[in-house]
Task: inverse folding
C-alpha cells in the first residue's frame, strides 16, 4: 500500500502543514504481489483528521477529476471512507478521496489500513501522524 497527497493539479503536497481552504486529494495504491492468489473481501479504511473535510464527489454535478478503480462498495462518512473490493493476483488498484483543509489547528491523521475481512494474514497499514492546518 502506498499513500500520497496531491493538489488538484497533480502536484505532490505534504499533509503535515496545509493552508486553510486548500483542496487536495488523498491517493491510495494497493497492489497484490501475487504470492497467494486473488485477494477477496478487502476493506480499505481511511479516517481523516477533524480539521479536514471530505468532499463527496458523488454529490457534485461534474465528473470526478480523479477516477478511482472499481470497487464493490464505498461508504463515505463525515470523517472516513470505507472501500470494499477484491484484487486479482499481480494487479494494482488506486482509490482517491478529495479533501479540504477546512479548520485551523493541529490534528492527528489516524492510520490507514487495508485488510482481508476473513483472513487476518492479508493486511497493510500506514501509521498515523500529526498534521496541521494553518491560516
Result:
Amino acid at each position: 500500500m502506498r499513500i500520497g497527497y496531491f493538489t488538484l493539479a497533480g502536484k505532490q503536497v505534504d499533509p503535515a502543514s496545509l493552508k486553510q481552504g486548500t483542496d487536495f486529494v488523498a491517493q491510495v495504491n494497493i497492489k497484490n504481489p501475487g504470492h497467494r492468489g486473488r485477494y477477496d473481501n478487502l476493506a480499505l479504511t481511511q479516517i481523516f483528521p477533524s480539521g479536514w473535510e471530505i468532499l463527496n464527489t458523488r454529490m457534485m454535478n461534474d465528473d470526478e477529476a480523479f477516477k478511482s478503480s472499481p470497487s464493490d462498495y464505498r461508504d463515505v462518512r463525515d470523517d472516513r471512507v470505507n472501500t470494499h473490493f477484491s484484487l486479482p493476483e499481480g494487479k494494482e488498484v488506486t482509490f482517491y478521496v478529495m479533501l479540504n483543509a477546512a479548520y485551523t489547528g493541529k490534528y492527528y491523521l489516524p492510520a490507514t489500513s487495508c485488510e482481508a475481512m476473513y483472513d487476518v494474514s492479508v493486511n497493510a497499514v500506514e501509521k498515523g501522524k500529526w498534521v496541521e492546518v494553518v491560516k
The domain at 2-126 is CATH 2.60.40.690 (Immunoglobulin-like).
